[in-house]
Design brief:
two-stranded antiparallel sheet, 2 strands, mainly alpha
Length: about 110
């Protein structure tokens, strides 16, 4: 089963050209007779993969941190808006609401 989504990021399949290039390289390696070169190549790949894993982990940590900050900001904004609405609604008396409605109706007529 291929993963198609991670952290709400769509993971697109590789283009056929890239898949073909990887397949060609794999076949060349399988045909090779020089075991010393293959060993050097494999150790190089293991080291390179390690570097990429560290880089990806750093990027994912940063992405998670940014996502968490965005969620916290949204929650704070919602709480602020709700408390502002409560304060605003309590500060208006019934007479001021009536005058506000009258002023709005006068504005909409003209």
């Amino acid at each position: 089963m291929k993963i198609t989504k991670f952290l709400n990021i769509d993971i697109e399949p590789a283009p056929p050209e890239m898949e073909l290039e990887v397949e060609k390289e794999c076949r060349e390696i399988m045909k090779a007779d020089d075991l010393d070169n293959i060993k050097r190549y494999c150790t190089h790949l293991v080291r390179k993969k390690f570097d990429q894993d560290i880089f990806m982990a750093s990027m994912l940590n940063r992405l998670i941190e940014l996502e968490a900050n965005a969620v916290v900001k949204r929650i704070k904004t919602k709480k602020t808006n709700k408390s502002y609405c409560k304060v605003f609604s309590y500060s208006l008396s019934s007479s001021s609401v009536k005058s506000l409605i009258n002023n709005l109706s006068i504005l909409s007529i003209s």
